[in-house]
């Protein structure tokens, strides 16, 4: 009798622990900090004639702060930094590309249904401001213009307050290149689109709590 009772207690305890773990993983943190590192690929059409960057460049750095207004949606403010350099067959240049974006965040994970318990998908999009600064003697060709960013993140929870994620995003430049005569004078100027892919960490700043 005691042996059976002990087994029942062990089974019951295991069920409680698993249920509690699942409940914690379903919780959404109100405040999160995000940091990511990855690669960028600038669109060739954003450069003056005769100029283009390498198809894949490093680094791409992203820092963000996020506030979930409700369980499934919230807002984010983030800063991104990209550096890219010339392709081998064009004149040499290097460009620092920075941006600041205010974004809307949407989490459709519960609606998808088939995702593992620890996995979440996040859609994010919003307007921002881009700052382009060519390095070296090309500094006069710096530009500032509006952009619009959209992206998809896939998060996997490592702990209650920590998840690893990958982000695929596209930044659309809302401007046009200045006219340069000759075009070579505009080397390093960039007003185009950038494709980013990165891996990062999402850390809860407010503990685990429902947003409702």
* Low-confidence region ranges: 12-26
Strand order of the largest sheet: 1-2-3-4-5-6-7-8
Cα Rg: 23 Å
> What's the helix-strand series?
HEEEEHEEEE
Note the gap between the termini: 46 Å
Write a concise synopsis of the structure shown.
This protein has 212 residues and is mainly beta. It is built from two helices and eight strands, in the order H-E-E-E-E-H-E-E-E-E.
Describe the fold and architecture:
The protein is mainly beta. Helix content is 14%, strand content 50%. An 8-stranded antiparallel beta barrel has the order 1-2-3-4-5-6-7-8. A hairpin with a 2-residue loop joins strand 6 and strand 7 (162-174). The chain is elongated and about 55 Å long.
Task: Write out key terms for the chains shown.
single chain, mainly beta, eight-stranded antiparallel barrel
Structural topology:
Blueprint: H1 2-26, E1 31-42, E2 57-68, E3 73-85, E4 94-106, H2 109-112, E5 119-134, E6 143-159, E7 162-174, E8 194-204
Antiparallel strand pairs: 1-2, 1-8, 2-3, 3-4, 4-5, 5-6, 6-7, 7-8
